[in-house]
Write a structure and sequence with these properties.
Helix 1 links the parallel strand 1 and strand 2. The relative contact order is 0.25. The chain is an alpha/beta fold. The mean pLDDT is 97. A five-stranded parallel β-sheet has the order 4-3-2-1-5, sandwiched between helices. It is 33% helix and 21% strand.
Length: 98
């Protein structure tokens, strides 16, 4: 069963991102939104975790949150809200890391 994992909390305030990456299945995807997009900041430890996770074509970030925090990323595909809805329908379930 495939899962879209959604993280909204800063990777600098807790370990949700690291925990998620340990549990991520080979066909699962990860969407960063809210303060979680800070994980994509150049030179950060969370970015190194994401780079080492082998998430090619399975890492997404909410474009509105990237823009609000002046972050750009080559690693994550920026998606808008309609694309977020499409992603949630493309996976068997959605797991929000609250």
């Amino acid at each position: 069963m495939t899962t879209l994992h959604v993280i909204a909390h800063s990777p600098f305030s807790d370990d949700r991102l690291a925990s998620c990456l340990r549990l991520l299945g080979a066909d699962d995807a990860l969407l960063l939104c809210g303060d979680a997009v800070y994980a994509l900041r150049d030179g950060s430890a969370p970015l190194r975790l994401l780079q080492g996770a082998g998430l090619a074509q399975r890492l997404f970030a909410l474009d509105e949150d990237l823009q609000a925090r002046a972050i750009s990323s080559e690693l994550a595909k920026a998606v808008d809200y309609p694309a977020f809805v499409e992603l949630s329908l493309a996976y068997d379930k959605v797991n929000s890391w609250l």
